[in-house]
Write a structure and sequence with these properties.
The chain has 386 residues and is an alpha/beta fold. The protein has two domains: 125 residues, Aspartate Aminotransferase, domain 1 (Alpha-Beta Complex); 242 residues, 3-Layer(aba) Sandwich (Aspartate Aminotransferase, domain 2), CATH 3.40.640. It has a seven-stranded mixed sheet with strand order 2-8-7-6-5-3-4, with helices on both faces. A four-stranded antiparallel sheet has the order 9-10-13-12, with helices on one face. Strands 1-11 form a two-stranded parallel ribbon. Helix 8 links the parallel strand 6 and strand 7. The two termini are 38 Å apart.
Amino acid sequence: MDWQAFRRRFPLPEDESFFNTGTLGCPAISVIERLYQSQHKLAETIAHWEYLNDDREWITGYTPEKKMRTRLGNLFGADPSEISLTQNATMGINFIANGLDWQPGDEVIQTDQEHPGARCPWEVLVERRGIVLKQVHLPIPLSTPEEIINRIESAITARTKMLSIPHITSGLGTVLPVKELCALARARGVYSLVDGAQVPGHIMLSLDDIVADAYSASLHKWLFAPAGLGFLHIKREFAKKIWPTQASEAWRDSDSGFRFQQRGTGNPSILHALDTALDIFEEVGQQNWCRRVKNLGDKLRHDLQEIPALKGKLRFNSSLHPELCAGITSVEYNNISSPNVVRNLWDNYKIRVRDVGDPYGLRISTAAYTQESEINNLVLKLGELN
């Protein structure tokens, strides 16, 4: 794979290095063009639309969108009928949290490293329904997968109803052993919900292998789709326990995936653009793509440890265990604030990293379009800071 040629398929300027894909990925030029062309066609031909039940290509939100759901299901190892199209991982997590029946005292277990989009739906239910939210402390950095499993297992009680965990933590990029954690929950009669916001296009994803009751993901980060695209996977038996919290005419439909994506008029152009983004993803191949991300992350972590000027000055907040890290690396200087590092790198070198705040520090995302030369330059500049 010619990764230099791959980079040229994106509108990122050659003199700018973008290491914040963990927030938002850059769509390829062809994806942007497809988005524009679709939107232009919609506007140009809108008067031709008769609004027949079998002819609704001008809007989304009311139709099953089986073609896209099938594509996502085939790509990520799931029954397409269990896939719902959403805007992002936060939306899917809210559907699950607010769709279950809760009793006061029901427990939800999370880590203490959750993204607000995965934490706050449960905080609302603490105040609204009287549930109990238990946050399991995960050390920074983590040492082994077993450490995570043991800490979460010890928190489960007879009142635990839900285990809601990230597949990859947002702040540190820790890859949690979600397959084992979901199996643990299942064995203890506990539902499992996985926040997969950082996963598609980052690490290999097989939903049939993980066997979570629900898995909510975003597609606008590492897969480089336009913002506003995600999916929610709900196992069929679990879906029967979830009330639609955003209902329209299909809220009773036997197609459970369709039921949970009804949200009123949407824009079909972003689905057309997603089609193009998935074309690129499948052209490269999920395995090649995700191996690229992992290799770049490993290179960054290795190179940072080899710079003499950084020894004793830079600490790793991300885990260095090979099973717990991939394309996100979080580090912190002992004597320079992370916001100052962010400003210095951008103002002087046009290198964009992100400060994700205490206790995480600088978050550096190495995505499929990142170049080895950009990592070399970043490491060099980090070594020169004082």
